[in-house]
Structures are given as structure tokens and as C-alpha cells.
Write a structure and sequence with these properties.
The chain is 36% helix and 18% strand. By secondary structure, it is of the alpha/beta class. Strands 3-4-6-5-7-12-8-11 form an eight-stranded mixed beta sheet, sandwiched between helices. Strands 13, 16, 19 and 20 form a four-stranded mixed beta sheet that branches. A four-stranded antiparallel beta sheet has the order 15-14-17-18, with no helix packed on it. A hairpin with a 5-residue loop joins strand 3 and strand 4. The N and C termini lie far apart (59 Å).
Amino acid sequence: MVWVRESEERERERERERERKEGPSLLALLSGSERRSRGRRQTGRAGLRKRARKRSGALFAEQSGTMLSGSSLIWIGALLLGLEASLTGASDFQHHGYEEMVRALFAVQSECPYITRIYSIGRSVEGRHLYVLEFTDNPGIHEALEPEFKYVGNMHGNEVLGRELLIYLAQFLCEEYRAGNERITRLIHDTRIHILPSMNPDGYEVAARQGPEFNGYLVGRGNAKEVDLNRNFPDLNALMYYYEKHNGQNHHLPLPDNWELQVEPETLAVIKWMQNYNFVLSANLHGGAVVANYPFDKSREPRIRGKTTYSATSDDKIFRKLAKTYSYAHSWMHKGWNCGDYFDEGITNGASWYSLSKGMQDFNYLHTNCFEITLELSCDKFPPATALASEWLANREALVSYMEQMHHGIKGMVYDENNNPISNAVISVAGVNHDITCGTDGDYFRLLLPGTYTVTASALGYLPFTSIVTVGPAEAVQLHFYLKVQPKGTNLNVKAYANKKGTSTAKIPPTNLGPR
């Protein structure tokens, strides 16, 4: 098989020549073990491509020496098309316009059809789909006790690095799953991952027309109506700060009347998305600084010129841990000095940096079960294509490590006496003034740091039940609850906040147009 070895040598030489001209491919940036694993597949592909060109109606399999029938050629031809598409999509570090982004997402779905699904959560002002790529072992299905995760990129149209990183992440997850990477396989089997590369495709197109060299700080930041989407969510902070003083509701805060008429189509789509999926953890990818930013974004104190105040959530220690997870897994974020600013350990409380109203990360925490942080990933909002390879290498481990954090704390089911799941039951942790609720299947997920906690499950019509649990640093501890029906005539003070409406009377300060 001398001609096979020669063809493989020519293939490798062409690849080396391409890298000299175009820079390193995604393959070149992988770890040694990943590169060797993928190299074995690459070599096999070269041989398959050569043998598929033979004019005869059959060909020889290199290892087995067996003859393949003509019908097998059809299967191999289809396989080769998929392999070629994979190599093309995964190796190019370039900016993706809307159509190119959509093609890239569908190429990943085509390459990994059994672990992926593409769906649209809505359309932008100009009618572009907001496509989400889902990774899990049973796409389209929520499995009990399997947490839901989301990444959101390109909320500001001119902050484009997050968009590209999420496309590369999708390609990476697919390729590594196919290669048998145990870490990625476990993550996909135990998690339902949702990737929205671009929340603001209209703004991106405006920014892309300017290009990296001439893009202004605000060109393309907003949507087609020039509305800043990270100042467009209902303001629940003011309501939360009022409730803190009057012992009111501490989670799943109600939305104002007619809120749907007050937000942009992109914002509306994302809010509906949050309401339809019981997300546990999330990150929102931005640009203009290099820091991991955590809630609250909005200050509790009146704005005083030149002064900022730290606004902690009840889960401040957890949010700091989440932010540090990304910062220290990133190549240089944790060093602190970036873009002319200094952030200790590469993290910051949002309000301590500057106060921001109607932002998405605070909305996640106050209206849903989801913990979200904002990741500022580059000094340059629209970095040149030549910088994308190094940025991917700097962020790859951090993107994976952050997703793994949702598998800490406690999780479980809430049942009635007949083992029927109870949806919307409230899970309270003593000493933490922020409750979470069960999903429609009766499962819950509560992020917690290592320690011993007193946890109570309660639901309308049932007697509450309390358990003590010790959480370690490893996988989430399973803690199930079985609630008994409340006897008639019993009046219990059970927390229940289902579908209440409310309005916020907060005075909105002038919009701050910082990186977030």
C-alpha cells in the first residue's frame, strides 16, 4: 500500500503549507492527547478520500483487506461529505456573518446528530432567527435530575468574540465527543447545554459592515432599533430591595403588567426561553474589558457621582466562586491587570464596578432559578480574525470548567406520598434569603458551597419537610423530599409565589454605556 502512504504524506504536507499561510488551525491548539486522537481520525480520512476516488464499483478496506460492495460506496460517500464539512468548519478561525454562523451550527448538528438539536427561540427586529444549539444525550428532552445550562453571546452586536467562541465551543464539543474524550462525554451525558451564539444578530451585521479596523465603540451595540438589550429587561432589583426591607418575596419576582409591550423582540424571546427551561447556570459573553462580573449589577444605594457600592446577593460567596472558576481557568483574566483596569483575581461585583439597571444577569437571578454571570472577554470589542485562535486557546478550558460548576450543591425530587412529583415546590436553605423552585417534573437543583445546610421543601396543600445535608466539594448530593398532604383546617405559612403580578416603581438612572 505504498501509494496510500504517499497520499497521506502529500496530505500532511498540504496541511503544513496551509498553516504556514493561514495560521494555526483548531487542531493545532488542542492538547497533545486530543491532537493524537484526532490525528488518527485525520489519517484515516485521507486514506478514505483517496480510495473513494477509485473508478471501480468497490474498494479495499485498508485494515481488514475485505472487499466493500457498491452499496457501501454510498454510505462511505455520505460519511466523507460529513468528515470534509467537519474539517472545514472546525479549522477556520474567522468571523461569521449571520448566514455563515447558521451554516456552522447546522454543520455541527449534521456531524453530531444524536447529541445535538437546533431550535429557534424567536426572531430579531429584522427577522433573523435566534438559533440555539443544544447538546445532550437525549436532545429535545428534559431528563429528571439533569440540569440545564446556557451560554449567551453577542448581546451587544459589536462585541463579537463571545459569538465566535461559542461557535468554536460547539465544534469542539462535537469533535471531542466523537473522539471519545471522557470529560466531554460525561458533561454531555449529564447535562443539557444550550448555546445561543448571537442574541443580537442585527446589531452584529451593522458592526461587521464597519469591520474590526473602523468599528466605533457604539456602532452596532444596540439592536436594529438601537436599543441596548442589556438595559431592556424588566427592573426587578428595585422590587427586590423593597422586599428585603419588608420581609417579602425573595425569588421568582413578578413581572410588571404589560411587560411584553415594553421590551424588544430579542429580549422577549430570551425571557420566554428562560421561562420555558429550568436553567440552573448561565453566562453572558461580552467584550470591552477582561473580567468575570457577578450580581448584583444595580446598586442598592442612590447613585453618588464618583462613588460605587458593592451590592451582594444572598448567594454572594457562590457567585464569587463561579467568577473565580472562569477567571483562573482563563489564561490571563485572573492576573487582574487588563485593558488598563485592575480587578483583583479578575472578578468584580457589578455594582462595585458601576451600577447598571435592567440588566440580564440580575433578571436571571430574580425571576428564575438561574445563576448567571457576565464574562468580559477582550479589550477589543471586535478583535481581528488573526486574534481569534489565541482567544479560543485562552478561553477553551474556562468555558468547559464553568459548565461543570452546575454539578455542585444539592439536587433531588419532591414527591407526594404516592411518589407523584410535585412541580413548583419551594426549596429553602436556612440562612440564605433566596429560594428556588422545582421544575415541572418535580426536580430541583440548588448550587451550594461545601458545608452543612438545613433545607426545607414546601408546597401549597402539603406539610413542609426539613432535612439536614452535608455538601462536599465533589458531585451534587441527592436529597429527595416526600411531602404529606396538609390536613384540612390547618393554616400553615407556606411560601408560594405562583404567577403573581407586580410593578416596579424604581426611578431609572441615566443609562451607563460601559462594556456591560
